[in-house]
Specification:
heterotrimer; A alpha+beta (292); B alpha+beta (174); C alpha+beta (792); A: 292 residues; five-stranded antiparallel β-sheet; four-stranded antiparallel β-sheet; C: alpha+beta; Aldehyde Oxidoreductase, domain 4; seven-stranded mixed β-sheet; five-stranded mixed β-sheet
C-alpha cells in the first residue's frame, strides 16, 4: 500500500527524459498513466530508484491519421481518449471495441495506450490489438528515433525491447489495405478483472474478400499470442463463410497456449478463443451481407 | 499557516528529498512539500485532512478514493501526489457550496443511494463526471460509468436511481 | 387531533436518512479519519506461507529505520502472556505467531512508526526464516492419518477434529428413510467467502498512563463484547476500558471478532505511551479476518411419491481454519444450522456435524449469515431442487405441498424451533406470478430448440433472527438481550442510546421512528447514538439481523415506559385521575372530552417544572429486552436466467423478491437491505469466493482475485412485500438485514441448474463461473469447487 522511496523528475521535453534515463543506468522507470506502475510500486513489486514522469510534456496527446492512412497515437493518449474518439470509432473497429474493455472507466482516464503496450502484460488488451494490426512502437533515445515492430517489441512477460535510455513516444498502426473490419472480445467475470481469454481480430477487406487478416490473443499464454500466421493462412484471399470461419477459429485456438488455473482449464480457454473468433468473423460476415 | 514556531527534532530525519508542489484543491491553491512516493489519496486524507476521500483496497480495484483530477474521475490511490502539481483536484468536500448541496448529493439522499457511506464520495464524483459529459444518461450509461466504483451495501439499484434523479433535476434547472 | 404518523416520521414512513447528512458531505467519522495527538502507526508483517515452523526472526534492520518507535514479535507478546488469547468459541487463538505459523497471512511481527510509509519500510527489513510443513486446505486432508497436526499447541488435541455435534431424532429419521418411496441425495460445497466491507478493520488504541484508562476506537459491530474481551485478555479493569465504535463502512459480520491487530495495537500503545493506529489493508483483511461459509453438505430427503417429505438427513463438515474463533451462541457448535427446513413441514430430521482445523484463516461465522443460516438455507433449497427433479415434480408444486400452512402456526420444527407466523404460500404465489412462471415451461422448451438455455430457480425459506432468548442463547456466557435508554428533554426533544451498532442499516433514522410511533415525538426531534461503551447501555451488538428484533424491541419498550410516566404527569396537569386519561399519537386527553388534553411536549416540560407529589422529576428510562423467541421472516426469491452454452456465461433476465419481514419501520430502508443482500447473493453465486492451492496459498486475497460485482454485472430486482406481523415483538417487526443473503444464492444457482438440467447435471458448486458451467454442460457431470485448486 505504500511505495518505497524513489527520486522523481517531471521533465517538460522528451530530450530531457532521455537524458535522465541515460544517466540513470537502467535504474529509472518512466511514468505515464501510472495505472500499471503505481500498483506495482504500492505492493513493492517494483522499487525503482527514480521515476521520470512524462505527463508534463506538451504535444504527446494526439490521435491522428496521416495522409497515407497510418494511425499515430501519442504517448500521452489515455484509454478513454480512444474510447471517445470519433476517428477511432469510424476507422479502427478493433481498437474501438477494445477501448471500452480496458480496465474500468476510472483507470481509463489516466492509463495510456503506449504505456500499456510498454508494460508488456500478457493480459494486456492493447498489446493484442497491436499484434493483430501489425503495429509498431516508436522509440526515441540519445541517437534519435527508431520503429520497433510490435512482434519484436515484447520480449517476455513485462519485458519490452526498449533500451534503458529510450522512451516510447508513439504507437503506429499501418494503413488499412481495404476496408478495415474487426473486433475485440474479452471474457471477464466482471469489469476490470483479469481476462480468462481475449481475442483481437483485424481484417482488411476488399469487398467480400479478405486482403489482410490479423489475430492476437491475451490471457491464454505466458505472453500475447501472435496468431497472425494462422488466421492469414485460413482467410487471406478468401471470403468469410462457415467453412473458412471454422478453419480460422480452429487454427487460432491451436495457436493459444493457455494454462489451467482457477479461471478454467486449458481446454476451456482454448474453446473460448475458438468461440470468440467464430463470433467476430460471423458478425463481420453478416454485416458484409447486410451492406451488400 | 503560523510562523510562531517550528520544532527541530533532536535526531534529524534522514535526508529525505521532498518536492514543492502547488495543487488547487476544491478551488483553493495549496502549496506543500511532499515526498514523491506519497499517494494523492494520502495527501488528501492526512496532509490536507480532507477525510471524505476513502481508501478501500490496495489493488486499484474499488474506487472509494475517486476524486476529480482536472475534471476527470481518477483513483487517487493510483496517482502520486506530485503528479497533481499545477492541476485541479475536486474532492467530495468540494461538491456542496456554503448555500446548497450539489443535486447529486441531494439525489443520493432522496433515493437512498447510500447505506454505510464509504463508497459514496467516490460514487458521487464519478457520477458528476458522467453527468458533465452526458446530461441525459440511460440506466445502462450510469451502470457503465460507475463500473469502477464498488459498493457492498446498496446493490447499486438505488445509486442508479439517485444519479438519474440528479440528472433530471439538473436538466430541469438549466 | 392525533398526529399524522407518516408526517412525523413514525412507523411506515420512508423517512430520508439522518446519517446521509454527513456522509454525502464526506463528513463521516470512520476510524481512519480519527487523528489523536502524538498518534503512531502500526503495520503488521504477515506470514507468506501457510504452515511452517518459525526458525528465527531478525528485526535488527527494522529498528534502524528512522521514525521507527517499536518492533514487536511473538516474543514481545509472550513475555506478557499475550501471545495467545481466548476465542468466542472457547478455543485459543494466536495473537502473534511464536512457534509456528498456521495459515498464510498470520501475524508474525509488527512495526510502530511515525507514519505507515516508514512502518512498511521497516517491515520489509524484517527477516524471518521459515521451515515449511505440508499445508492442509480442506477437511478431507485434515482427517487423513498422514496429516500434520495444525494445533500441536493444544494439550489433548491429537487430531485436527474440533467437534462432533448432532441434533434431532436419528431413529425416527431412519424409519422415515426406510419407508420412503424415493431418497434424494445431494452433496455440495458452500465455498469460503468473505464479507469484505468496503472499509477494512482497524483501531486506534490509546492507553493513558496518567488515568489508567484505555480508549480504543475500533471498527466493531459489538463494542460491549469487545470491552468484555479486552478486560479478559489485557487484564485491565472493565470500568477503565472504553470502546468507541464510530461510523463503520460496512460490517456484514466481518467486524465482530476480536482480531490480533486490535490486541497488538493495545499493547503497543501501552509500551510506547502513545496512541497507536492500526488500519489493515485490503489484502490483510481478505487473507486473515473473519470469513464465512466453507462447509460441505451431504444431504438426503426421504420422499413419498406424492411429494411429501417424510424425513431429512443432513451431515455437514465445516472448515474453521487454524483456530475455532466463530462468534456464535455457545450452545451450538455449528450455529443455527438446525434451522434448516424450518419453512417446511418435515416430521423427522437428524443433523450431524463435524468441524475441522486447517491451515487457513480462522472463522466461518460471518458474512450476513445469521449464524450459519446462509448455509442452512442454501443446503435446504438445493436439496429441495434436487428432490423435486428426482420426483419428476414441478419445483413450485413440490414446495407448496411441503411448506408450513398458515393454519399450522405456531409450528414446532423437528429440531425444536418454534415458528410463529407467516403466509408462505401467498409469498410464493406472488413471486411466481411476477416472474411469469405459468408459461415458462413452454418458453424454456422453445428457447432450447434455438440453442438458448433459459432457467428459473426458486428459493423459499424462513430464517431465525433476533438471537436470542436467555434460556438458550449466550456468547461466552453473556446473554443475548439488548437495550435502549431514552431521555426526553424539557422541550420535548430526546436522545436515544442503544446497545446495537449500525453499520449502514440506518439506526439513527429508524430507531427514532419507533419512538415517534410510541410517543408522538417527531422523529427529527430525536437524536440516536450508538457505539460508545461509556455512554451506551449494554448490548450484544448488531449482527445476525438481531437489531430490529431485539434492540428495536427495547426501543419500543423504553418509549412505553416513558409514556407510562408521562401519563401520570398528564393526569396531574389535567387534574383528573389516571384512569380517565386516553392516549392518541402525541397527546393525552380526558376521556369523553377529547378537546381537553396535553401534548407529550407539555408533559416533558412538566417533568422538569411541575411533577405531581411523590413522582420523581425527569423523563427518562431504560429497557433491557430479553426476546421471548426468535423471529421468523419469510422470503420467496425467484430468478430467471439465460445461459450461453458456448461460453458458460449466464445472465439474469429477471429477479423477483417477495419478503415478509413483518411490520416495516422504514420501507425504503427495508428495500435497501434486501437489494444489498441480493447482490451479495449474486456475488457468491456468480464470481466471489476464496480458495487455496495445494501449498495453502490463498487465492482471493485481493480484489484482482476476490471478485465483487460492479453496477454493470449486478442485476436489477423487482421487490414485493407481504406483511405478517410478529406476534411476540412489541411492534410486530421481524428483521430483514440478512434474509436476501441467506435465501438469495439458491435462487440463482437453482435457475442455472434448471437451465442446464437436460444435461443431467445435479450440481455445480458456487461460484458458478463460466468455466464451471461450461464444463457441466459439456460433460453432464457435477462440478465441484472445493480446494485445492489445481494448476498446470
Amino acid at each position: 500500500m505504500y511505495p518505497s522511496r524513489f527520486a522523481y523528475d517531471a521533465p517538460t521535453s522528451v530530450n530531457e527524459v532521455i537524458a535522465i534515463l541515460d544517466r540513470s543506468n537502467g535504474e529509472a522507470k518512466v511514468l505515464a498513466g501510472g495505472q500499471s506502475l503505481i500498483p506495482m510500486l504500492k505492493l513493492r513489486f517494483a522499487s525503482p530508484e527514480r521515476i521520470v514522469d512524462i505527463n508534463n510534456i506538451d504535444g504527446l496527446d494526439y490521435i491522428r491519421q496521416d495522409p497515407d492512412g497510418s494511425l499515430r497515437i501519442g504517448a500521452l493518449v489515455r484509454h478513454e481518449d480512444l474510447e471517445y474518439s470519433d476517428l477511432i470509432a469510424e476507422t479502427q473497429p478493433t481498437l474501438a471495441a477494445a477501448a471500452s474493455l480496458v480496465a474500468d472507466p476510472l483507470v481509463r482516464t489516466r492509463g495510456t495506450f503506449v504505456g500499456s503496450v510498454c508494460h508488456a502484460d500478457p493480459q494486456g488488451d492493447w498489446a493484442a490489438t497491436m499484434i493483430a494490426l501489425d503495429g509498431r512502437v516508436v522509440a526515441q533515445g540519445p541517437s534519435g528515433r527508431r520503429e520497433i515492430a510490435m512482434k519484436d517489441f515484447v520480449l517476455g512477460p513485462f519485458t519490452n525491447a526498449l533500451a534503458y535510455n529510450e522512451v516510447a513516444v508513439e504507437a503506429v498502426i499501418p494503413p488499412a489495405k481495404g476496408t478495415r473490419k474487426g473486433s475485440y472480445l474479452k471474457l471477464e467475470r466482471r469489469v476490470g478483472n483479469f481476462a480468462t481469454a481475449s481475442v483481437a481480430v483485424a481484417l482488411d477487406m476488399n469487398g467480400e474478400t479478405v486482403q489482410r487478416a490479423g489475430c492476437a490473443l491475451a490471457g491464454v499464454g505466458g505472453k500475447t499470442i501472435d496468431a497472425n500466421a494462422e488466421i492469414s493462412a485460413a482467410l487471406v484471399g478468401k471470403t468469410l463463410d462457415a467453412a473458412t470461419i471454422e478453419a480460422a477459429a480452429d487454427a487460432v485456438a491451436g495457436a493459444s497456449d493457455p494454462r489451467t488455473d482457477h479461471r478454467g482449464s486449458a481446454a476451456y480457454k482454448r474453446q473460448i478463443v475458438k468461440t470468440f473468433v467464430t463470433r467476430i468473423l460471423t458478425h463481420i460476415a453478416q454485416s458484409e451481407q447486410k451492406a451488400a | 499557516m503560523t510562523s510562531l514556531y517550528e520544532e527541530i527534532p533532536t535526531a534529524p530525519a534522514a535526508d529525505v528529498p521532498t518536492r514543492r508542489v502547488t495543487i488547487t484543491v476544491n478551488g483553493e491553491k495549496r502549496t506543500l512539500d511532499i515526498e514523491p512516493r506519497l499517494l494523492l489519496a494520502h495527501l488528501i486524507r492526512q496532509g490536507l485532512q480532507l477525510t471524505g476521500t476513502h481508501v478501500g483496497c490496495d489493488t486499484t480495484g474499488c474506487g472509494a478514493c475517486t476524486v476529480l483530477l482536472n475534471g476527470r474521475p481518477a483513483k487517487s490511490c493510483t496517482v502520486l501526489a506530485v503528479q497533481a502539481d499545477g492541476r485541479e483536484v475536486t474532492t467530495v468536500e468540494g461538491l456542496a457550496s456554503a448555500q446548497q448541496l450539489d443535486p447529486i448529493q441531494e439525489g443520493f439522499k432522496e433515493e437512498h443511494g447510500l447505506q454505510c457511506g464509504f463508497c459514496t464520495p467516490g460514487m458521487m464524483l464519478a457520477a458528476k463526471a458522467l453527468l458533465e459529459r452526458n446530461p441525459n444518461p440511460t440506466e445502462d450509461d450510469v451502470r457503465w460509468a460507475l463500473s469502477g466504483n464498488i459498493c457492498r451495501c446498496t446493490g447499486y439499484q438505488n445509486i442508479v436511481k439517485a444519479v438519474l434523479w440528479a440528472a433530471e433535476t439538473m436538466r430541469e434547472e438549466s | 387531533m392525533a398526529l399524522d404518523e407518516l408526517k412525523i416520521g413514525g412507523m411506515g414512513a420512508s423517512r430520508r436518512r439522518v446519517e446521509d447528512n454527513r456522509f454525502i458531505r464526506g463528513k463521516g467519522n470512520y476510524v481512519d479519519d480519527i487523528v489523536l495527538p502524538g498518534m503512531l502507526h502500526m503495520e503488521i508483517l504477515r506470514s507468506p506461507v501457510a504452515h511452517a515452523r518459525i526458525k528465527s526472526i531478525d528485526t535488527t534492520a527494522a529498528w534502524e529505520v528512522p521514525g521507527v518507535r517499536l518492533v514487536m514479535t511473538g516474543e514481545t507478546l509472550a513475555a506478557r502472556n499475550l501471545a495467545w488469547m481466548p476465542t468466542l468459541s472457547y478455543d485459543t487463538q494466536a495473537v502473534m505467531a511464536t512457534d509456528k505459523v498456521r495459515f498464510q497471512g498470520q501475524e508474525v511481527a509488527a512495526v510502530i512508526a511515525d507514519d505507515p510509509y516508514i512502518a512498511k519500510d521497516a517491515l520489509s527489513r524484517i527477516v524471518v526464516e521459515y521451515e515449511q510443513l505440508p499445508a492442509i486446505v480442506n477437511p478431507e486432508q485434515a482427517a487423513s492419518p498422514e496429516a500434520p497436526l495444525v494445533r500441536d499447541d493444544k494439550v489433548n488435541q491429537d487430531s485436527n477434529k474440533i467437534f462432533d455435534w448432532e441434533i434431532g431424532d436419528k431413529e425416527s429419521t431412519d424409519r422415515a428413510f426406510a419407508e420412503a418411496d424415493v431418497v434424494s441425495t445431494i452433496d455440495l460445497h458452500y465455498p469460503r467467502s468473505h464479507p469484505s466491507p468496503l472499509e477494512t478493520c482497524g483501531s486506534i488504541a490509546d492507553y493513558d498512563r496518567a488515568t489508567g484508562k484505555l480508549t480504543v476506537y475500533m471498527t466493531t459491530q459489538a463494542p460491549h463484547i469487545i470491552r468484555a474481551a479486552v478486560a479478559m485478555v489485557a487484564e485491565l479493569p472493565e470500568h477503565m476500558i472504553r470502546i468507541v465504535s464510530p461510523d463503520l463502512g460496512g460490517g456484514f459480520g466481518n467486524k465482530v471478532p476480536v482480531y490480533p491487530g486490535y490486541v497488538i495495537a493495545i499493547l503497543a500503545s501501552i509500551l510506547t505511551e502513545h496512541p497507536v493506529k492500526w488500519v489493515e489493508d485490503r489484502s490483510s483483511n481478505l487473507i486473515s479476518t473473519g470469513f464465512g461459509r466453507d462447509v460441505y453438505l451431504q444431504g438426503q430427503l426421504a420422499l413419498r411419491k406424492d411429494g411429501k417429505i417424510l424425513g431429512m438427513r443432513m451431515h455437514t463438515i465445516s472448515d474453521h481454519g487454524a483456530f475455532y474463533a466463530d462468534a456464535q451462541p455457545t450452545k451450538f457448535k455449528i450455529g443455527l444450522m438446525h434451522s434448516t427446513f424450518a419453512a417446511y413441514d418435515v416430521p423427522a430430521a437428524h443433523l450431524t456435524s463435524e468441524g475441522w482445523y486447517t491451515n487457513k484463516a480462522p472463522g466461518g461465522v460471518a458474512y450476513r449469515c445469521s449464524f450459519r443460516v446462509t448455509e442452512a438455507m442454501f443446503f435446504q433449497e438445493r436439496m429441495m431442487h434436487a428432490a423435486a427433479n428426482d420426483l419428476g415434480m414441478d419445483q413450485a408444486e413440490f414446495r407448496r405441498i411441503n411448506l408450513v400452512k398458515d393454519d399450522q402456526f405456531p409450528y414446532r420444527t423437528a429440531f425444536g424451533f418454534l415458528t410463529d407466523s407467516g403466509q408462505y404460500g401467498k409469498c410464493l404465489d406472488i413471486a411466481l406470478d411476477a416472474i411469469g412462471y405459468a408459461n415458462f415451461k413452454e418458453e424454456q422448451e422453445e428457447a432450447r430448440k434455438r440453442g438458448k438455455l433459459l432457467g428459473i430457480g426458486i428459493s423459499t425459506m424462513t430464517e431465525p433472527l433476533g438471537a436470542g432468548n436467555s434460556r438458550e442463547y449466550d456468547i461466552i456466557g453473556i446473554k443475548m438481550f439488548d437495550s435502549a435508554e431514552l431521555r426526553v428533554h424539557m422541550t420535548g426533544k430526546a436522545i436515544l442510546r442503544t446497545g446495537a451498532k449500525t453499520q449502514g442499516q440506518g439506526h439513527e433514522t429508524t430507531w427514532a421512528q419507533i419512538v415517534a410511533h410510541e410517543l408522538g415525538i417527531p422523529a427529527e426531534d430525536i437524536v440516536v447514538e450508538e457505539g460508545d461503551t461509556d455512554t451506551a447501555p449494554f448490548g450484544m451488538g448488531t449482527y445476525a439481523s438481531r437489531s430490529t428484533p431485539v434492540a428495536g424491541a427495547a426501543v419500543a419498550m423504553v418509549a412505553r415506559k416513558i409514556r407510562a410516566k408521562a401519563r401520570k404527569i398528564a393526569a396531574h396537569l389535567l387534574e383528573v385521575s389516571e384512569e380517565d386519561i386516553e392516549w392518541e399519537l402525541g397527546r393525552f386527553y380526558v376521556r369523553g372530552n377529547q378537546e381537553r388534553g396535553v401534548t407529550i411536549q407539555d408533559c416533558a416540560l412538566a417533568a422538569y417544572s411541575n411533577v405531581p407529589d411523590g413522582l420523581e422529576p425527569g423523563l427518562e428510562n431504560n429497557a433491557y429486552y430479553d426476546p421471548p423467541n426468535l423471529t421468523w421472516p419469510f422470503a420467496a426469491y425467484v430468478c430467471k436466467v439465460e445461459v450461453d452454452p458456448e461460453t458458460g456465461v449466464w445472465d439474469v433476465l429477471k429477479f423477483v423478491a417477495v419478503d415478509d419481514c413483518g411490520v416495516r419501520i422504514n420501507p425504503m430502508i427495508v428495500e435497501g437491505q434486501i437489494m444489498g443482500g441480493l447482490t451479495e447473493a449474486y456475488a457468491m453465486a456468480s464470481m466471489q469466493y476464496i480458495t487455496f492451492d495445494e501449498e495453502g496459498n490463498c487465492i482471493g486475497s485481493n480484489f484482482m482475485d476476490y471478485l465483487l460485482p460492479t453496477a454493470w454485472e449486478t442485476p436489477g430486482y423487482e421487490l414485493h412485500e407481504v406483511v405478517t406481523p410478529c406476534p411476540h415483538h412489541p411492534i410486530g417487526a421481524k428483521g430483514i438485514g440478512e434474509c436476501a443473503t441467506v435465501g438469495g444464492p439458491a435462487a440463482f444457482v437453482n435457475a442455472v441448474m434448471n437451465a442446464i438440467e437436460h444435461t443431467g447435471v445435479r450440481n455445480v458448486d458456487m461460484p458458478l463461473m463460466p468455466n464451471r458451467v461450461y464444463e457441466a454442460v459439456q460433460t453432464g457431470r457435477d462440478v465441484s469447487g472445493a480446494p485445492p485448486v489445481k494448476g498446470d
